[in-house]
């Protein structure tokens, strides 16, 4: 059984005030909140953004254009025809597809395809893996 207090019972007559949480800035920007404020006649602050909604792009400054011209990237080395053909020939002799070779060197099939098409920038690590799998020397022939 619950025990009751033996002292005098008093009541607390202090008023308890419940307040709503303050509205957050994020909630004030919500379109629903803005429409509600407009309907009730509350003040709504509007700010016009500079060049908002226009597709115009400012012309780059002359200094930026000069900087771009001076720091133009240099053409990178590409696979030579010799190396491309050596990879393809060795792969076909071993009766492998590009996907199988890629799987064996732990790379994407796209990598092998780029090497055979000559679009890849030579990576010594990838060439070393291909040399091991195909049993052909490839790394002494890259220059262009």
Provide a descriptive summary of the structure in words.
It is a single chain. The protein has 144 residues and is mainly α. The chain has a domain at 81-134: 434 Repressor (Amino-terminal Domain), CATH 1.10.260. 44% of the residues lie in helices and 0% in strands. The protein is built from seven helices and no strands. The longest helix has 13 residues, at 81-93. The protein starts with 24 loop residues before the first helix and ends in a 10-residue tail after the last helix. The model has no long low-confidence stretch (mean pLDDT 80). One of its GO terms (cellular component) is nucleolus. Keywords: DNA-binding, Transcription, Transcription regulation. Its main location: nucleus.
List keywords for this structure.
144 residues, 7 helices, elongated, 434 Repressor (Amino-terminal Domain), mainly alpha, transcription
DSSP E strands, number: 0
**Mean pLDDT over the residues:** 80
Structural class: mainly alpha
Within CATH, the superfamily of the domain at 81-134 carries the name lambda repressor-like DNA-binding domains
Radius of gyration, Cα only, in angstroms? 36 Å
Q: How much β-strand is present in the residues?
A: under 5%
Shape: elongated
* Uncertain residue segments: none
Calculate the terminal CA-CA distance, rounded to whole Å.
Answer: 96 Å
Give helix % range: 40-55%
Order of helices and strands: HHHHHHH
Which architecture of the domain at 81-134 per CATH? Orthogonal Bundle
At the first level of CATH, the class of the domain at 81-134 is Mainly Alpha
CATH topology of the domain at 81-134: 434 Repressor (Amino-terminal Domain)
Largest sheet: none
Subunit organisation of the chains = single chain
**Count of individual helical segments:** 7
């Amino acid at each position: 059984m619950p025990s009751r207090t033996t002292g005098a019972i008093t009541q607390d007559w202090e008023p308890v005030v419940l307040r709503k949480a303050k509205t957050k800035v994020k909630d004030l920007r919500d379109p629903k909140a803005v429409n509600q404020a407009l309907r009730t006649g509350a003040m709504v602050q509007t700010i016009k953004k500079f060049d908002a909604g226009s597709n115009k792009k400012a012309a780059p400054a002359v200094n930026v254009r000069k900087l771009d011209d001076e720091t133009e990237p240099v053409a990178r080395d590409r696979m030579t025809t010799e190396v491309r053909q050596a990879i393809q020939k060795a792969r076909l002799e071993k009766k492998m597809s590009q996907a199988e070779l890629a799987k064996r060197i732990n790379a994407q099939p796209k990598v092998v395809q780029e090497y055979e098409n000559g679009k890849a920038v030579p990576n010594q690590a990838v060439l070393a893996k291909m040399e091991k799998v195909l049993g052909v020397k490839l790394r002494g022939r890259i220059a262009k």
